[in-house]
Amino acid sequence: MKQIKIEDVSLSLIREKLKKPFGFKGRHIEELWQSVCAIKTGDFTAVCPATQSVLWSDGNVFEAHTPDESNTLMYNTTRYALELIKGRTFITPDLLIDSLLAPLRDYADTVCKRKVKTTFLLNSLVGVDIALWSLYARENGINSFDGIIPDYARDALSCRHDRLAHIPLISYNVTDKEIKKILDAKTGILKIKIGNCVDKTSHERDMKSMLEWDKERLLAIHRIAQEYETDLTKNGKVAYYLDANGRYDTKNRLWELVYFMDKHKILDRTAIIEEPFDEETLNNSDIFVGDFPVAINADESAHSEEDLAHRIKQGFGSVALKPIAKTLSVSFKMASAMKKAGGQCLCADLTVNPYLAEWNKQFASRISPLSALNTGCVEVNGNENYETWGEQTRLLPGKIKYKDIINGCFECDGEFYKNSGELFSKNGYFDTAMANFEK
Fold first, then answer.
1. CA 231 → CA 170, 188, 372, distances in Å?
2. Strand order in the sheet with 8-24
3. Of 81, 300, 119, 273, which Cα lies nearest the Cα of 191?
4. R_g of the chain, CA atoms, integer Å
5. How far apart are CA 366 and CA 108, in angstroms?
């Protein structure tokens, strides 16, 4: 592999409105910023529009600022990362990304006036990371996703699914009518946001009201979903993927929810419960989650192989890989580590744009399926939430054609693997970013 020199960098911004307030972590967002990173070598330019989510990546930063302020902080962190790499050389992107984390943390901690979570840093690096992998491919004559998979991750990404079960997101305010419409489309697994904030007058009231809301919400969704069957799961029933985003404070409270789920026949349909406890709780306690009768999935609390090793010791049986939120570089390493540990992986979404969704599909199509499913899966919810999703798909670069869901799945045919979704085509850049180089 050759030494690659970064000649120039650029950053642009697109603000995308959501159809309605999007609820998770007990809060809501109304738009998502897309930071469009462009990186230029002597021969090639690669561009990636990356979706920012400050609420997901660091709720403390989001809570301490207005949405615009918190988004600006992440955008400026991305800008600083681009400044750090201008003029540098690299052989593989993962090593370059590793070298950025320490100086980027110093910068982000300073501007955010707090110690930011590693996920905040990784989220700010997604556009930089994917642009670097694109350049790595072009500079080395690689024209497929298989070609960029590091040797250490090849075993973990050795599957070839012919379809990916689509995982839609059921956030707090998705209506019964909308859920029925999703299930009518032959959806086999639902990602359900739990942990709503109903009463913040005190911590205990918050936790009690949250738990009761979660019970009622799950029961209402289950009453609808139990009327449907699917060939995407091993038991023929629609599966549930619960995402708490770190809202639960104790194991006892989570056990109360699990007992309720068991009583109402919800538990036997539940594939995973994601991130019930926040990162600080997990890092500063001896909590063990391996005794729950359902796989507990790590997401925001796992940013590296070291984090994941600790979560595995705590009993986590699966991890959400997010190439589109935690970088491809980190996701390759985490996929390898979880494969060696005998656990499960899945590719979750961040309500990203269609370009990132295509990268996520390429990754998801190559990892082993969840134990509850008959095939691979991938979460995509941008189509449900962006006002301009249709327009965004039409603006995809080069020959990329976004393919819609068919019978609850994304088809992964020979062309999908042969062309890697056209992600490595020479026309893979965006005019909004190229304009900055022409100024």
1. 21, 8, 11
2. 8-24, 27-40, 45-51
3. 273
4. 21
5. 34
The residues with which 373 forms a beta bridge, in sequence order, are 233
Q: In the Cβ-directed half-sphere of 68, how many Cα atoms lie within 13 Å?
A: 0
Query: Residue 33 corresponds to which tokens in the numbers above?
Result: 């910023």
Give the residue from 66, 76, 80, 77 showing the smallest Cα distance to 31. 66
pLDDT in tens, the chain (439 residues): 799 999 999 999 999 999 998 888 778 899 999 999 999 999 898 999 999 999 999 999 999 999 999 999 999 999 999 999 999 999 999 999 999 999 999 999 999 999 999 999 999 999 999 999 999 999 999 989 999 999 999 999 999 999 999 999 998 989 999 999 999 999 999 999 999 988 888 999 999 999 999 999 999 999 999 999 999 999 999 999 999 999 999 999 999 999 999 999 999 999 999 999 999 999 988 899 999 999 999 998 998 888 899 999 999 999 999 999 999 999 999 999 999 999 999 999 999 999 999 999 999 999 999 999 999 999 999 998 999 999 888 878 767 778 889 999 999 998 889 878 668 765 444 544 444 544 4
Q: What distances in angstroms separate CA 143 from CA 137, 348, 414, 418, one per listed residue?
A: 7, 25, 15, 9
Q: Which two tokens stand for residue 362?
A: 């390429």
CA angle, residues 302, 306, 311, in degrees to nearest 5? 50
Q: Which two tokens stand for residue 101?
A: 């984390």
Give the span between the Cα atoms of 313 and 341, in whole angstroms.
Answer: 10
Given the structure tokens 């019964």, which residue do they identify?
176
- Cα–Cα distance measured from residue 419 to residue 201, given in angstroms and rounded to the nearest whole number: 54
**Measured between alpha carbons, how far is 52 from 72 in angstroms, rounded to an integer?**
10
Task: End-to-end CA distance of the chain: give it in Å, rounded.
Answer: 33
Q: How many residues does the chain have?
A: 439
